[in-house]
Automatic annotation (TrEMBL), chain A:
Oxidoreductase keyword on record: yes
Protein name: 3-methyl-2-oxobutanoate dehydrogenase (2-methylpropanoyl-transferring)
Annotated segments matching region Disordered: 1-37
Domain Transketolase-like pyrimidine-binding span(s) in chain numbering: 38-213
Keyword match Chloroplast: no
Gene3D superfamilies noted in UniProt: 3.40.50.920, 3.40.50.970
UniProtKB/TrEMBL annotation, chain B:
Location of the region described as Disordered in the Swiss-Prot/TrEMBL record: 1-44
Keywords: Oxidoreductase, Thiamine pyrophosphate
Protein name: 2-oxoisovalerate dehydrogenase subunit alpha
EC number assigned by the record: 1.2.4.4
Residues that span the membrane, as ranges: none
Similarity comment: family membership: Belongs to the BCKDHA family.
Domain annotation 2-oxoisovalerate dehydrogenase E1 alpha subunit N-terminal: ranges: 8-47
Cofactor: thiamine diphosphate
Domain Dehydrogenase E1 component, residue spans: 85-378
Organism the protein comes from: Brevundimonas vitisensis
Function: The branched-chain alpha-keto dehydrogenase complex catalyzes the overall conversion of alpha-keto acids to acyl-CoA and CO(2). It contains multiple copies of three enzymatic components: branched-chain alpha-keto acid decarboxylase (E1), lipoamide acyltransferase (E2) and lipoamide dehydrogenase (E3).
Signal peptide: none
């Protein structure tokens, strides 16, 4: 099986391990140089293997993250390869996991912790926002928490309310946190490596819908395997991508689409569907934000559509929209449009009505194209 | 469907303390072991074999000030005097800073009156390389270690020399060099962090241990229980203190779950050893901490210590305890005052006198006054402060464009 689809039978809490098919298993003995096709899970796994081999201060833990390698297998073989005290299982205590990581970070380690689903990050919220985010500031630099909190996030997997949320704006609002969301294997490895090396706490959200391949948002289409994508050619050795630099996924002249995570692929499909020459910008990092790339693009195209999965109200799209308005108002030829999830809890049975798809992106594109003067 | 009927209607219990304002203080419910009565288990004991210690009370000093029993740490007179002086200095510092608040020189202050033995003894035992994860009532730790009083005051006044740049409430100190982790205003968060820090030391094969403190009230926070789980599971080299000073602002310790069992006994369910100690007995605190230290350093993991004491002062400068507890309850505390008891002990040993004590008190007041002058010359709250530019610093390791733009907007 090379393609992954999600069907009625997947609609249980037990879907996670099945998301990884046999041929998506991590590469066994990766050569030290050269590139290799990888899916996002393998790329993230490779980042952890490479970093842990390089730096004994890096360790990884989380619920089921040790022996079993995590329910999505992102931490697969870390324990077997790097030892029990480098990669281990943690109690089901998200607060404890993050708090312990903070203490370790303050000691001088670089822990990478896994919150099994972003939906379970709330029990750790206080430790993240009141502690990790604030240590450097409140101690005038005496204590820091260089931790990475990894978590699969987002919808499109029939995960119901508690396996589908996109809580990024709850963290972008907090001073002292960096928020990174990759959309492809190449970026995932480079950004995770950079996150681990970053001296500040990084919230690293992994779009689980993209773990096994890009997804165009047409729910009848299967996830296409990464195999055919350039972005799946991942160096087996170490490399980093700068945190705070967006990627222009598609150059265009009519309208700028700002997106991240799964919505990058949905936006590309939406632009094609609408037949609009859109410039698609994968933000990759929400904090720090690559404002220069955004500004230059919107000034060039004169139009802006923002796409994210999270609910609309107080979502990160509101911030993007305000920034574009502040900086590009006199260049805008149409009101900024937002395509987002609805302001409801994530509904299991209405996934495809909820999840922003390419039709909605196409509609927004058409409206900004005709909404001009 | 079956009807389930009770003989009596159900009723809700809300725990109440033994006395309220106007009542005579009543401590008759306390079961206090006699000094010397509790045995000292071997440091390697299993938590199972020493369950009793979670319910007893370890005491060393008797009513005549004589050190008795197996927990007597047999400290030399020099160490005892050093501890006593640090306690006296802590109390003098508290008094002056409390007054400074009344004089409008700072926004807030919190005293540790009656609890001085805890932070002072423990601060003396552990090295500065070990990390303390304190609450706002362990100022004695910094003082016992000789941290400059003027720096503490500069922090309290948020003045231009505030070592943490006016960013925290007064009393929320931070000093890596003195083994004092940055204090959080969110109760309980430091305890699982201390466990993580200790895990890191163990992971690295180092020899540092961590020590944390939490109030009786805050043990009800989930963080505390998460910490016990992690400490137990990973056998972290950490000492987890619970300072049971009977009150959490206006709520007595029964509201946090101290009525049905002791706080120390919470350790039992986690498989951790627990010691319950007279927190007003410098020697008992010392001995129990040493026991826990030895356990941690010999890789046998964490110990929970309940330090049984009484918060003599108001919770903070914003609090008036006469509105929720008998006014003279503190004076009636059956375990006395930690300074008076250590003083009595040293005098009984022939190593101290009333005159020496008065001198030490006068010296402490003079020392605090001198530091006060120096700090007030730099400025009290609002008179001087760090550059506003620093407000935008250290949010991240490097400033990003938002902070640079916002700093320019402020014009700095
Ligand atoms: C998470 C949190 N909730 C509430 C408060 C407000 N608060 C500050 S101190 C305090 C009482 C704490 O009592 P205790 O833990 O017994 O410590 P003590 O003050 O007696 O030393 C409360 C409720 C807080 N700081 N943090």
């Amino acid at each position: 099986m090379t393609e992954q689809t999600f069907t009625e039978s997947d609609r249980t809490d037990g879907i996670e391990p099945d998301m990884v098919t046999a041929d998506h298993a991590p590469p066994s003995e990766a050569p030290t140089s050269g590139t290799q096709p990888m899916n996002m899970i393998q790329a993230l796994n490779s980042a952890l293997h490479v970093k842990m081999a390089e730096d004994p201060n890096v360790l990884s833990f989380g619920e089921d993250a040790g022996f079993f390698g995590g329910v999505f297998r992102v931490t697969d073989q870390l324990q077997q390869k790097h030892g029990l005290t480098r990669s281990f299982d943690a109690p089901i205590s998200e607060c404890g996991i993050v708090a312990a990581a903070i203490g370790m970070g303050a000691y001088g380690l670089r822990p990478v912790v896994e919150i099994q689903f972003a939906d379970y990050i709330y029990p750790a919220y206080d430790q993240i926002v009141s502690e990790a985010a604030k240590l450097r500031y409140r101690s005038a630099g005496m204590f820091t928490a260089p931790i990475t909190v990894r978590s699969p996030y987002g919808g499109g997997i029939f995960g119901g309310q508690t396996h589908s949320q996109s809580p990024e704006s709850l963290f972008t609002h907090i001073a002292g946190l960096k928020v990174v969301i990759p959309s492809n294997p190449y970026d995932a490895k480079g950004l995770l490596t950079a996150a681990i090396e970053d001296d500040d706490p990084v919230i690293f959200f992994e779009p689980k819908r993209l773990y096994n391949g890009p997804f165009d948002g047409w729910h009848k289409n299967p996830v296409s395997p990464w195999k055919t994508q350039d972005l799946a050619q991942v160096p087996t050795g170490k490399y980093t991508l700068p945190i705070g630099k967006a990627r222009i996924m598609r150059e265009g002249s009519d309208v700028t689409i700002l997106c991240y995570g799964t919505m990058v692929w949905v936006s590309l499909a939406g632009a094609e569907h609408a037949g609009v020459d859109a410039e698609v910008i994968d933000l990759r990092t929400l904090v720090p934000l690559d404002i220069e790339t955004i500004e230059a693009s919107v000034k060039k195209t004169g139009r802006c559509v923002i796409v994210h999965e999270a609910p609309k109200t107080s979502g990160f799209g509101g911030e993007l929209s305000a920034l574009v308005q502040e900086r590009c108002f006199y260049h805008l030829e149409a009101p900024i449009a937002r395509v987002t999830g609805w302001d409801t809890p994530y509904p299991h049975a209405f996934e495809w009505e909820y999840f922003p798809g390419p039709e909605r992106v196409a509609e927004a594109l058409k409206s900004v194209m005709t909404g001009g003067r | 469907m079956t009807q389930h009927k009770n003989a009596q209607p159900l009723s809700l219990r809300v725990p109440e303390p033994s006395g309220r304002p106007g009542d005579t203080p009543d401590f008759s419910h306390l079961k206090l072991d006699a000094p010397g009565a509790v045995d000292r288990p071997p440091v390697g004991s299993t938590p199972y074999d020493m369950r009793d210690h979670a319910f007893r009370l370890i005491r060393v000093l008797d009513d005549a000030g004589v050190a008795v029993g197996p927990w007597n740490p047999r400290l030399d007179a020099e160490t005892l005097r050093k501890g006593l002086k640090a306690m006296i200095l802590t109390r003098a510092f508290d008094d002056r800073m409390h007054r400074a608040h009344r004089q409008g020189k700072t926004s807030f202050y919190m005293k540790c009156t009656g609890e001085e033995a805890i932070a002072v003894a423990q601060g003396m035992i552990l090295s500065r390389e070990d990390m303390g994860f304190p609450t706002y009532r362990q100022q004695g730790l910094l003082i016992a270690r000789g941290y400059p009083l003027v720096d503490m005051m500069n922090q309290i006044y948020s003045n231009a020399e505030d070592p943490i740049k006016g960013r925290q409430l007064p009393i929320m100190y931070s000093s890596r060099d003195y083994g004092f982790f940055t204090i959080s205003g969110n109760l309980g968060t430091q305890v699982p962090q201390a466990v993580g820090w200790a895990m890191a030391s163990a992971y690295k094969g180092d020899d540092k241990i961590a020590i944390s403190w939490i109030g009786d009230g805050a043990t009800a926070e989930g963080d505390f229980h998460n910490a016990l789980t992690f400490a137990s599971v990973y056998r972290a080299p950490v000492i987890l203190n619970i300072v049971n000073n009977q009150w959490a602002i206006s709520s007595f310790q029964g509201i946090a779950g101290g009525l049905e069992t002791t706080f120390a006994s919470k350790a039992i369910g986690y498989g951790l050893p627990a010691l319950r100690v007279d927190g007003n007995d410098f020697l008992a605190v010392w001995a129990a901490t040493q026991w826990a230290e030895e356990r941690a350093r010999s890789n046998q993991g964490a110990t929970v210590i309940e330090l049984f004491t009484y918060r003599g002062a108001p919770h903070s400068t914003s609090d008036d305890p006469s509105r929720y507890r008998p006014g003279d309850e503190h004076e009636k505390w059956p375990l006395g005052d930690p300074i008076a008891r250590l003083k009595q002990h040293l005098i009984a040993l022939g190593e101290w006198s009333d005159e020496q004590h008065s001198e030490a008190e006068a010296e402490a007041v003079a020392q605090v006054r001198a530091a006060g002058k120096e700090s007030e010359a730099i400025g009290t709250l609002g008179q001087s402060r760090p550059s506003v530019k620093t407000m935008f610093e250290e949010v991240f390791a490097t400033e990003d464009w938002r902070l640079i733009e916002q700093r320019r907007e402020v014009g700095v």
